[in-house]
Design brief:
The chain is an alpha+beta fold and about 150 residues long. It has one domain.
């Protein structure tokens, strides 16, 4: 583990008790310009959230509500229409939407080419990780995994 990963892990251990050496890697430093939902949507230019005041970006075709259905609809605007499992599948891109125990969306991650998942931890670092490594008190667990075809041009 790199010194940066060791320092990062020490700073987030209470929020992510399943995150440990060997099940994550840092991929980019702190950047408060986008959040986990935007990162999962491959958008590093905007903060995605369905806030009532319309201060953050949210797809116009998705309900502006903090519900699982609204998040599924938001990713549906990007072509994520099929429910899937967490396995790596050829010619498919996947996103996982996390919810707290009450079913309220908290986080999203996208699958990368080696089968791990890419997450933006709020306004913090970007990491790649095993899917279950970030489940716990802050994000809850995976509620749904959606997929879309991988388009190559």
């Amino acid at each position: 583990m790199t010194p940066q990963e060791h320092e990062f892990l020490a700073g987030v251990r209470d929020k992510f008790p399943l995150l440990r050496e060997g099940n994550f890697r840092l991929t980019s430093p702190v950047d408060g310009g986008y959040n986990c939902i935007a990162w999962a949507a491959a958008d590093v230019e905007r903060w995605w959230w369905p806030d009532a005041m319309h201060q953050a970006y949210w797809p116009s075709n998705a309900p502006r509500a903090v519900t699982l259905d609204a998040f599924v609809a938001a990713f549906g605007t990007l072509g994520y229409l099929d429910q899937a499992d967490s396995s790596l599948a050829a010619a498919r891109q996947k996103v996982a939407i996390f919810t707290d125990p009450g079913g309220v969306p908290t986080h999203a991650a996208r699958q990368v080419a080696d089968g791990w998942w890419a997450s933006k931890l709020g306004g913090r670092d970007d990491i790649e990780h095993e899917l279950a490594a970030i489940e716990g008190p802050l994000y809850g667990g995976v509620a749904v995994i959606l997929s879309r075809p991988t388009f190559r041009g």
